[in-house]
């Protein structure tokens, strides 16, 4: 098959990933047999012994060696965990939910029994739960109600090498918790059982990592011991493109079919930066696969990204049907968090999405999710995925020179994202982010920007102490600015609408599909949802229309309706779930969420403005561009916005996106008077 008329040109790499022994697990054998076959199983006794005798252990092991699935079960089966719960933190929600399902199956129970999970807006947990997979963010949140994490006898901080902000925060907090619960980081006696004798409810901490930066973790915990698990890694032949690729999705498509047509059976894993690219490539691959001659193997595609519903995630692990090649299209979730069996070929676009806090650009600062080059260490991990069961191949869609130019590893997130939400959570614990002992300290400017944001939101007072409003904000499972909008809606009696909006904004995917080749048609059908105040009330209209349809129509009809309106039903369903939780949070706090703005949408924009105050901008004399009120950037309204060609005096927006210009997305018009009202309070900020 000739895709788009040309072949992808590759050069063989000079180097190889090192390969070792044979072995591999038979898919047909039982789960218990599979468990015993994992590399970590050989070290089981030594591992249990070490953990039993020390408060903190750092465990380093190659991806797929069995750390995440096995260590919690060893802790449970050996009795080390006592009667407490074992928490296992993950940076990504898909990893938490899918690994919990796997471990529940290995334990022969259903999810929600012995094994559960907890991610934002979704929890499966029962009274018998002993192993809990959770996002690092959820465990940080639990600190607010249980500062010593007394429910847990073991905390396993997994994927520590990713160095997410929440993981770093946990590593810091666990150090003080260990001192309080165990009297120190080291046990007083070294003998077996002594550790448990030092306190009524001692804690064990295990830091797990996939790459070779374990010393840093060990140093942080007073040079605690590092254990290594050897994985199985067969040799992987690496190819680079001869020339750099501008369109990596197209290059991936061509490469996939080259593999499919010319190479022996074996599944393919393609690394792409995000959901949009995954969905577009998925569509193209299926399209071309249908045109294959009948004597060729069939193709089965499996997308894998954060917003994918659990039922579809499971598809990845199902064995490939006969005479079919599985093609997994994944984000960096498949780099170290989740190991998919059967992969022989890896296609690496060399890109990922990274959250960056662009403070210096704008004065006020904002987080942007940008598609960027991966690091060398990611590239090595990605290639490694091809060699877990046998010899493999990795096709890099970038040149060898580009690989050499990549950074060795990425900066910890604490040094590149907004600290506002973390600073608020710490304030609730009577702690200041600037006083804490971190593995890597955040920048002073970044801390100041977080405190300024909290002041703008009324979450802290002049002496930087947390306010009652600040505490209420932290009680919502939302970013502080959205929580602040909800609180403001109580005053403005429009909580119903604001919660609708916030629920959609907190969903993992976008509500309105942005299909570039059908943009005109999409805009036409969406016209009926349009609200003159902008995109936020437009969301309310779309959500309400969907609910009207949902009330009477069948599941299939609902789906079809969404397709015709270019609405993402997954987002709607997720938003409705989130809304239920936000309403429940309101009820717990004695807030009546039923108050409605009726036809007075100003109440809604006023409430949103309170939370998005740092995201406000004024129309400039040119009548087209806007200047940030609390920042220096000049921005335009995104062409996909309801307000794209309207002339309004001032706006608030959800986010900025960088392309050839800075565009504001999720825009509503506000009267200038709102800005005047708030400026007096804000002027009192002294940095
Ligand atoms: P590590 O944490 O060291 O990277 P894991 O414990 O995640 O290793 O993986 C161990 C093994 O469990 C891998 O071979 C992986 O393929 C398998 N596995 C994990 N989740 C599932 C699942 N949902 N279905 C089938 N196999 C799985
Ligand atoms: Mg793991």
From TrEMBL:
<dbReference type="InterPro" id="IPR011545">
    <property type="entry name" value="DEAD/DEAH_box_helicase_dom"/>
</dbReference>
<dbReference type="InterPro" id="IPR048333">
    <property type="entry name" value="HA2_WH"/>
</dbReference>
<protein>
    <recommendedName>
        <fullName>RNA helicase</fullName>
        <ecNumber>3.6.4.13</ecNumber>
    </recommendedName>
</protein>
<dbReference type="InterPro" id="IPR014001">
    <property type="entry name" value="Helicase_ATP-bd"/>
</dbReference>
<dbReference type="GO" id="GO:0003725">
    <property type="term" value="F:double-stranded RNA binding"/>
</dbReference>
<dbReference type="GO" id="GO:0016787">
    <property type="term" value="F:hydrolase activity"/>
</dbReference>
<dbReference type="Pfam" id="PF07717">
    <property type="entry name" value="OB_NTP_bind"/>
</dbReference>
<keyword id="KW-0067">ATP-binding</keyword>
<dbReference type="Pfam" id="PF00271">
    <property type="entry name" value="Helicase_C"/>
</dbReference>
<feature type="compositionally biased region" description="Basic and acidic residues">
    <location>
        <begin position="27"/>
        <end position="36"/>
    </location>
</feature>
<dbReference type="InterPro" id="IPR007502">
    <property type="entry name" value="Helicase-assoc_dom"/>
</dbReference>
<keyword id="KW-0378">Hydrolase</keyword>
<dbReference type="Pfam" id="PF21010">
    <property type="entry name" value="HA2_C"/>
</dbReference>
<dbReference type="GO" id="GO:0045943">
    <property type="term" value="P:positive regulation of transcription by RNA polymerase I"/>
</dbReference>
<dbReference type="InterPro" id="IPR027417">
    <property type="entry name" value="P-loop_NTPase"/>
</dbReference>
<dbReference type="GO" id="GO:0005730">
    <property type="term" value="C:nucleolus"/>
</dbReference>
<dbReference type="InterPro" id="IPR001650">
    <property type="entry name" value="Helicase_C-like"/>
</dbReference>
<comment type="similarity">
    <text>Belongs to the DEAD box helicase family. DEAH subfamily.</text>
</comment>
<keyword id="KW-0347">Helicase</keyword>
<feature type="domain" description="Helicase C-terminal">
    <location>
        <begin position="252"/>
        <end position="430"/>
    </location>
</feature>
<dbReference type="GO" id="GO:1990904">
    <property type="term" value="C:ribonucleoprotein complex"/>
</dbReference>
<keyword id="KW-0547">Nucleotide-binding</keyword>
<feature type="domain" description="Helicase ATP-binding">
    <location>
        <begin position="48"/>
        <end position="230"/>
    </location>
</feature>
<dbReference type="InterPro" id="IPR011709">
    <property type="entry name" value="DEAD-box_helicase_OB_fold"/>
</dbReference>
<feature type="compositionally biased region" description="Polar residues">
    <location>
        <begin position="1"/>
        <end position="26"/>
    </location>
</feature>
<dbReference type="Pfam" id="PF04408">
    <property type="entry name" value="WHD_HA2"/>
</dbReference>
<dbReference type="InterPro" id="IPR002464">
    <property type="entry name" value="DNA/RNA_helicase_DEAH_CS"/>
</dbReference>
<dbReference type="Pfam" id="PF00270">
    <property type="entry name" value="DEAD"/>
</dbReference>
<dbReference type="GO" id="GO:0005524">
    <property type="term" value="F:ATP binding"/>
</dbReference>
<dbReference type="GO" id="GO:0003724">
    <property type="term" value="F:RNA helicase activity"/>
</dbReference>
